Amino acid sequence: METNEAINKQDASYYKNLFTVKFLRILISFLYYSRIIHNKAMINLIARLMFIFGKKDRNKSLRNITIALEVDEDEAKTIYMESLKNAIENFLIFTYIMTGLIKNEYFKHNVIINGKETLDNVLKGGNGVIAVSGHIGNFPLMVLALSLSGYPVAVIFKEFKYFGGNTYADEMKRYNVEPIAYKNNDIDVTKKIITALKKGKIVFFIIDQRGNNYIKVKLFDQELPVFPGAAVLAKRKKVDVIPIFTHYTGGKHYVDILEPLDLKRNASIEENMQTMISTIEKYVKEHPTNWLWFYYNFS
């Protein structure tokens, strides 16, 4: 049985989290109804402050940009500043989604989906599809937009709680997206992914991130550790893999559904994973102000 001390600590933690939730809801509601989401001057100011005072992220990002895109320092600074502005606006939109402030109308007027025909043709087989994506643009908004367009979607993620009162999984479910929370039990997660594929769903993997049992691939000619789950399952279950990315420009979010990848069945997991990662590199080069440049550390 739990001791009184343990119970008191749980109660204290509960009320602390409850207070944080209420405070976040008030703050986020204020930001939303004050229309700060559309206040470019305010977003520019926040980005400038982050640029000035976020020395560690700034230096890392500028180094990464100059290495990856082979540009001079001035152009790298311009790209980084624009990426900060996009990241701030995307974060605000994400918080509004998480607290239920953004309604379905927002998606109709602000999200454009390209390549639906490609996705429709692949889904006709009924075997589901693995969608690979990365830390580009507003990933949660992209997933929800596809679900609202009638596509059966599942997404793999690391759960976090007490954000505005709802968990990420709660909001995904509200939009009919199946959340697959990543935990230490890889077998359980794999079973859920396979079940989702059997139901004909689009299962999203963010592949430009580290994970358990990582393998090394090259991104912008830099050797990086990434989680190989998408390549392993694609080879095991023989399902199509489609890159789906999103970028933000001109006040609109664009979801780009690309052609299925030509993965070789007799290729190694490393080779197929490299093919997937290469699609991120190409997309980032096309939309450099939409990637989180501080996520990796190029040298």
Q: How is this structure best described in words?
A:
The chain has 299 residues and is α/β, with parallel strands linked by helices. The chain folds into two domains: 4-98, no CATH class; 109-290, no CATH class. It has helices spanning 4-33, 40-53, 55-69, 73-98, 104-110, 116-123, 139-148, 168-174, 186-198, 229-237, 269-286; strands at residues 111-114, 129-133, 153-157, 177-181, 202-206, 215-219, 222-226, 241-249, 252-257. The strands form two sheets. It has a seven-stranded mixed sheet, sandwiched between helices. The longest helix is centred in the first third of the chain and has 30 residues, at 4-33. It is globular and about 50 Å long. The termini are far apart. The relative contact order is 0.15. Residues 1-19 and 162-166 have low confidence and may be disordered.
Instruction: Provide the gyration radius in Å.
Output: 20 Å
Beta content: 15-25%
Q: Provide mean pLDDT, rounded.
A: 84
Biggest β-sheet: count, sense, barrel? 7 strands, mixed
| Helix-residue proportion | 40-55%
> What is the string of SSEs from the N terminus onward?
HHHHHEHEHEHEHEEEHEEH
- Number of discrete helical segments: 11
Order of strands across the biggest sheet? 1-9-8-2-5-3-4
Categorize the overall geometry: globular
Number of domains: 2
Q: How many β-strands, per DSSP?
A: 9
Low-confidence stretches: 1-19, 162-166
**What is the distance, rounded to the nearest whole angstrom, between the alpha carbons of the first and last residues?**
53 Å
Structural class comes to: alpha/beta
What are the salient characteristics of this protein?
about 15% strand, alpha/beta, seven-stranded mixed sheet, single chain, globular, about 300 residues, 11 helices, two-stranded antiparallel sheet, 2 domains
